[in-house]
Amino acid sequence: MAKKGTNAMPCAEHRFADGHVETESVLLDRLRALGGEVRRPYELGSVEQDEEGVTLTMTSGEKLRAACAVGADGMHSTVREAAGIGFTGSTYAESFVLADVTMDWAPGPEEVSLTFGTRGLTVVAPLPDGRYRVVATVDDAPATPDPAFVQRLLDERAPGQPEVTGSTWSSRFRVHHRVADRYRNGRLLLDGDAAHVHSPAGGQGMNTGIQDGYALGHAIAVGRLDAYEAQRRPVARRVVAFTHRMTRVATARNAAARAARNIALPLLGHTAVPQRLATELAELNYR
Ligand SMILES: Cc1cc2nc3c(=O)[nH]c(=O)nc-3n(C[C@H](O)[C@H](O)[C@H](O)COP(=O)(O)OP(=O)(O)OC[C@H]3O[C@@H](n4cnc5c(N)ncnc54)[C@H](O)[C@@H]3O)c2cc1C
Known about the structure:
By secondary structure, the protein is an alpha+beta fold. The chain folds into 2 domains: 2-89 and 177-245, FAD/NAD(P)-binding domain; 92-175, Alpha-Beta Plaits (2-Layer Sandwich), CATH 3.30.70. It is 36% helix and 30% strand. It has 8 helices and 13 strands. Helix 5 (205-221) runs antiparallel to helix 6. It is globular, with a radius of gyration of 21 Å. The chain starts with a strand and ends in a 5-residue tail after the last helix. Bound molecules: flavin-adenine dinucleotide. Flavin-adenine dinucleotide (FAD) binds at residues 4-11, 14, 42-44, 72-74, 78, 98, 135, 173, 192-193, 200, 203-207, 209.
């Protein structure tokens, strides 16, 4: 079994300047303790399967042979493409800004702020060392949002609350909602964002991929590879549908829809909905 997804390409882009590096090193230590290894840099160029196994050709020319291959290679999965598996869905119109900034932020580091505004959704979440992560929907985001851009954005959406002093990392991205038509074609299998992508609303993408990995490990161990798709694809469809609804509610432009949302949300806070929402977002209902 060759596990791909070894970070040859946009690793630096994905590596946020915070606890992600620490998390990655904890996971790597555990993988090594179990006898596994991650090879870097290693970029998969092409995959071919035959009756006996798969041949993975790296961009360096090196070839690997394995019984099967798991594409854990993200949204633009080479393995999914090689397997000829469609990725059905579409892309949201809004672009998102993501910036880790240092700032004086009036609400302080003890809470996450979520603001629904006429111009878009804004989330400010505290990070270690006096930094904050700002995520916002905007009509047209710059490639690298600088501190001045973030200051203007927050001045407009949370007036009087921010004083941005610097930025440690920033980016823009578009959000897709798609699910792979199948999770397996012969000896090629998909896991994580290679199999499903959706809005970050609710922060479920990584957790869904980790649960995929666990289910796939079990399916391989007991020799029931088809059980993997049957178990996990319905979960991805549900997560995608759920985050799609949340995104539509959060980014509503229509004045009547926004007014209804703004009235309903505080009322729902006094019902059982927040508890159900927390269980859904934590994915504890899929155990
Ligand atoms: C703003 C934002 C906030 C988010 N917040 C959360 C959150 O709070 N909680 C949560 O659970 N999820 C969250 N997510 C989603 C989460 O980041 C993704 O679901 C998760 O990173 C997917 O992991 P993955 O390993 O499947 O794919 P990726 O993270 O895309 O990793 C794929 C890897 O494969 C490598 N690769 C690609 N092609 C090749 C190739 N040909 N050869 C070798 N290697 C290759 C890439 O370099 C990359 O390292 C968020 C996403 C965004 C955009």
